TrEMBL record:
UniProt membrane topology term: Multi-pass membrane protein
Cell compartments where the protein resides: Cell inner membrane
Lineage: Bacteria, Bacillati, Bacillota, Clostridia, Eubacteriales
Any single GO BP term: C4-dicarboxylate transport
Descriptive protein name: Tripartite ATP-independent periplasmic transporter DctQ component
Bilayer-crossing regions: 20-38, 58-73, 94-115, 135-155
Primary location class: membrane
Domain named Tripartite ATP-independent periplasmic transporters DctQ component: residues: 30-161
Keyword field: Cell inner membrane, Cell membrane, Membrane, Transmembrane, Transmembrane helix, Transport
Length: 169
């Protein structure tokens, strides 16, 4: 019989794949929107209203935050490895969990305050300052979701360090 942790892990993997798909789609949509905006501006003298704000406030947030946990689990985040190769393994076994704990604390704060901001935006019906005045709560929620998924992956890397595919260059 499979444990609860197994099913929870599979659910997180599935949610992470959905988030990564959303991130990739946001890059594609960003490319299409910028192309259409530039084309409209150059050839017709008519840019797409709110396209810059949509890119800044939705698509970039989606692209970055929804991909963070996947990039982390693949070992793709920036690491300073120049000094690591000269440090003894015993030291690295102590320092890596400490650095992970600092990352967890940082992204836990982002998750907490992101959730607070999402709730506030929902309560007060916060909208973008652009002409379209689209709601901001979904963008804040996507930020919170991405940071929360990264927190889960950092906890997972503390408990199971071998799961992360770190490459030493």
């Amino acid at each position: 019989m499979k444990s609860f942790a197994y099913f929870l892990g599979k659910a997180i993997d599935y949610l992470e794949k959905i988030c990564m798909t959303g991130s990739v789609l946001s890059v594609i949509f960003m490319m299409l929107l910028v192309t259409a905006d530039v084309t409209g501006r150059k050839f017709f003298g008519q840019p797409i209203p709110g396209s810059v704000e949509i890119n800044e406030e939705y698509l970039m947030v989606t692209m970055v935050y929804l991909a963070m946990s996947y990039v982390y689990i693949q070992g793709g985040h920036v690491r300073v490895t120049l000094i690591r190769r000269f440090l003894p393994q015993v030291f690295l076994k102590v320092i890596d969990p400490c650095l992970n704990a600092l990352g967890l604390a940082f992204f836990s704060l982002i998750t907490y305050f992101g959730w607070q901001k999402t709730a506030t935006a929902l309560k007060f019906k916060e909208t973008s300052s652009c002409i379209l005045a689209f709601p901001m709560a979904p963008a804040y929620f996507l930020l919170t979701l991405g940071a929360a998924l990264l927190c889960v992956r950092i906890i997972e890397s503390i408990v199971q360090p071998a799961k992360i595919k770190w490459e030493e260059n």
